[in-house]
Amino acid sequence: MSNSLSLAPAPRSEAAEQVRAEVREFLAAELAAGTFRTHVDTWLSGVDPDFSRKLGERGWLGMTWPKEYGGHERTAMERYAVTEELLAAGAPVAAHWIADRQSGPNLLRYGTEKQRQEILPRIARGECYFVIGMSEPDSGSDLASIRTKATRNESGDWVVNGAKVWTSNAHESHYGIVLVRTSPADPASRHAGLSQLLIDLSLPGITVNPIRILDGGHHFNEVVFEDVVVPGDMLLGTEGDGWHQVTAELAFERSGPERFLSTYPLLAEFGRRVVDTGDPAQLVALGRLSARALALRQMSLRIAAALDRGELPNIPAALVKDVGTTFEADVIDEVRRVVDVTPSLDSPDPLARALAEAQLHQPGFTLRGGTNEILRGIVARGLGLR
Amino acid sequence: MADQDLVVETVRDILTGFEPFVLTAERRWDSGLWSALADAGLTGVGLPEEAGGSGGELADAVAIVRTLAAGAAAVPVAEQLLVALPALLVADLELPSPELPTTFAIGDAVSVHPVDNGDGPGRFTLSGTVPNVAWAGAAQHVVVLAPAPSGVTGAVLALVDASSLPAGDGFNLAGEPRGTLVLDQVGTSGALLTAAQASEVRARFALARSVQLAAALERVLDWTVQYAGERHQFGRPLGKFQAIQMELAEMAGEVVAVTALVDAAVQALDRGSPDVVLAAAAAKVRAGAAVEVVARLAHQVHGAIGFTQEHKLHHLTRRLWSWRDEAGSELVWSRVLASGLLADGGDGLWPALTRIV
């Protein structure tokens, strides 16, 4: 098989197992104290700044970053263990998720020293949240077609006009890393002329409009920029290098356990049901689903190990996300086939509730972070087909 | 896996002289290939030299099995290196010469009687039929896992000299011999295994087939990608069509998933994990489930030529369809896996999922 797709097995990490046990103990105590309730897909829907701060206090945010920026200099394998424990418990991690996963590493890579000093320690404390400003009303999978524009004014600042959509939790966030066009579109070089700006969402001229998802939840937003003046030093990285910089984020964005554990709380409830009923068909279904989850864990762990080696395995990450998000959706159907339960958001039955939450979130799994069709195109490139 | 490069190269070099062929009742295995492998000491790899093996690690034996499986080699190496001979070592029984093919079979319907009551390895008489004996008619010895004599817990592992026994014909979908061994008061050497040891031997068998499945799935993907690049329709290679690219990417996802889990299960076996049975169960379920997708799409992309014996594809797709049901199907191992994962109750599912591999 093509080398661009295969990664070496992840070494076992004692440090990861140690922090896993600590997180498990913490989560059990929080659940017992009633500080949160388990839900499906909480890395989108579970905004809880108090909870995020608690994670920051324990050193579970910014885990892999240098200590001088508030990080903890731990491995991607340790971070993997922490994040998958939080997801499996359905804990409210949405407030800090993007900042910790993606924006922080992005700032570490491309930010100025001042930006790193000011912002990274706040992210690591669980106090500063980010949105990704990529998609627009007319630009989804075709990201290079974005029209949000930034032009320099006479004082060297950026003036931004345009709109970004699907910005998760923009109404609760402090900054956006926004992909903008800084020079006119060139049909001969579609990926040229794009740049990333670090934008304080409290600046004048920014309007955040809610976009409700299928269950009525407010997570998505439209963020409109009208003559927003962004200080000139808030350019992230290099002007015109935005496409390359966005691509570099993708190994972080696409490979984590959130790409196959969004519906794990449903699988956990299903497991409890199987114990109660002893139904043979349910047992087999649980076995099949578990084997898929176990394979996905190994795939995702291999990417964490590759990140620890300093690699940015974008193609394997695309593959994990394709296989993983397909699994997240399949959990719903496999459970439905063997359990007679009516999904309902207000049911007293936790399985019925988890099914309802999962079903209403399901269309998002295979869209966010790159549709599975786009991902398969990337995998096809890895196979040498394009 | 770079440490295994040399052994893989050696097997590949040997394989160049032995193309896969259509197996028939008259030509049921590749005895020439076996001899070449045995002459090179490859049929004893992973077994200690003091026991008559060639030395080397489990990873070396797995690499040999993978390379042979991807080459559709008609030899009982997976059975010998990963199941039969290691099981004999577990049972503290003497190994037959690795130069003679030894296979493995599960004889759940065999009745076993002890001949002596001495300590340690002893003698037993076996009666009954053993179905689905891989490479029946080719293997000199069959290691049979049979129920323990009545009143004794665990199981018996027996080494049966098959060379003079009648073996009923039977073949899997790839034409590989899967005969029925008829035992009528056959005296053999054997040893008692604990129930846990017996489970582990079954798991080894499932893991051996999983390793073969993983290798064959990967090679089928390679062949299909290559074919899609060579075959032109509408003036372009098939691989330039998005519809085909989506199918190949889906195949790749299955292959990468299977490889990751099978490798992890092999590592679980290698480090003597107490969860090796569940790890092997998961590997077999996942590998078996991938066969449907990969074989279906491979044939779809290959078109009509892949549906004939003119093209090599069938050598592996027919094996995939066979191996997924051998050594326990997805149905069988899903039950084992789920029961094990839920052994500590519903709340134990997540701790178990993060422990077993």
Describe this protein's structure.
The complex is a heterodimer of chains A (386) and B (357). With 386 residues, chain A is α+β, with helices and mostly antiparallel strands. Chain A has three domains: 116 residues, Butyryl-Coa Dehydrogenase, subunit A, domain 1 (Orthogonal Bundle); 111 residues, Butyryl-CoA Dehydrogenase, subunit A, domain 2; 137 residues, Butyryl-CoA Dehydrogenase, subunit A, domain 3 (Up-down Bundle). Helices cover 48% and strands 13% of the residues of chain A. In chain A, the strands form two sheets. Chain A has a four-stranded mixed β-sheet. In chain A, strands 2-3-7-6 form a four-stranded antiparallel β-sheet, with no helix packed on it. The model of chain A has no long low-confidence stretch (mean pLDDT 96). Chain B has two domains: 192 residues, Butyryl-CoA Dehydrogenase, subunit A, domain 2 (Beta Barrel), CATH 2.40.110.10; 157 residues, Butyryl-CoA Dehydrogenase, subunit A, domain 3, CATH 1.20.140. In chain B, 55% of the residues are buried. The model of chain B has no long low-confidence stretch (mean pLDDT 95). In chain B, 47% of the residues lie in helices and 16% in strands. In chain B, helix 4 packs antiparallel against helix 5 and helix 7 runs antiparallel to helix 9. Chain B has 357 residues and is an alpha+beta fold. Chain B has ten helices and nine strands. Classes of the chains: A alpha+beta (386), B alpha+beta (357).
